[in-house]
């Protein structure tokens, strides 16, 4: 009987899924390593819903906001005093990535989404702590989430906006 309980517990751990909350907020540290092993570190905060809406607020080494409603992306670069607008061909959907995640080992999961493989690390409660992937320019991107706050409902549209001064240059992409 004892061995049967251990077996069921082990199967439960292997089949555990990553929690997909309605929304989340966190601070982040992002490390990008290019093919020549040069590393750039960014930090800031992020707010997301379980779909395609997000707002990344970069604070270091440059001030920038990157927002999306799932259909377009707005990049507000405060150092350059410009705002860029892009239509999304393939949007990033964190909820879809998390739903595709399959247990790999220990607290690690992998997910395939839009031709890219993501490696995800979770805490003991199944909440995402880290995401790693290789981008289109062959950079290795590692994002560590800290001070994660799970939201009981999706964040408001107002909280997801990227405001900018009217004096900034506008670029339509």
Describe this structure in words.
The protein is mainly beta. It has a single domain (2-172), classed as Lipoprotein localisation LolA/LolB/LppX (outer membrane lipoprotein receptor (LolB), chain A, Clam), CATH 2.50.20. Helix content is 12%, strand content 50%. It is globular and about 50 Å long.
Summarize the SSE layout with pairings.
Elements: H1 2-15, E1 23-33, E2 39-49, E3 54-60, E4 64-68, E5 72-77, E6 82-87, H2 94-100, E7 102-105, E8 108-113, E9 116-122, E10 128-134, E11 140-151, E12 169-172
Task: Offer a concise description of the structure.
It contains 2 helices and 12 strands; from the N terminus they run αββββββαββββββ. It has 173 residues and is mainly β.
Strand line-up across the major sheet: 7-8-9-10-11-1-2-3-4-5-6-12
Structural class: mainly beta
**Mean pLDDT over the residues:** 86
- Strand proportion, as a percent range, falls in over 45%
Defining traits:
173 residues; mainly beta; outer membrane lipoprotein receptor (LolB), chain A; twelve-stranded mixed β-sheet; 2 helices; globular; disordered N terminus
């Amino acid at each position: 009987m004892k061995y049967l309980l251990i077996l069921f517990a082990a199967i439960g751990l292997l089949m555990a899924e990553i929690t997909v909350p309605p929304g989340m907020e966190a601070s982040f540290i992002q490390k990008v390593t290019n093919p020549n092993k040069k590393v750039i570190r960014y930090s800031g905060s992020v707010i997301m819903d379980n779909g395609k809406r997000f707002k990344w607020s970069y604070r270091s080494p440059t001030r920038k906001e990157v927002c999306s409603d799932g259909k377009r992306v707005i990049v507000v670069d405060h150092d350059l005093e410009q705002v860029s607008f892009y239509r999304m061909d393939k949007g990033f959907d964190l909820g879809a990535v998390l739903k595709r995640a399959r247990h790999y080992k220990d607290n690690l999961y992998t997910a395939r989404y839009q031709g890219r493989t993501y490696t995800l690390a979770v805490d003991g409660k199944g909440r995402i702590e880290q995401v790693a992937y290789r981008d289109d320019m062959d950079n290795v991107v590692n994002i560590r989430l800290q001070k994660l706050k799970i939201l009981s409902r999706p964040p408001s549209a107002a909280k997801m906006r990227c405001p900018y001064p009217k004096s900034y240059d506008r670029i339509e992409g």
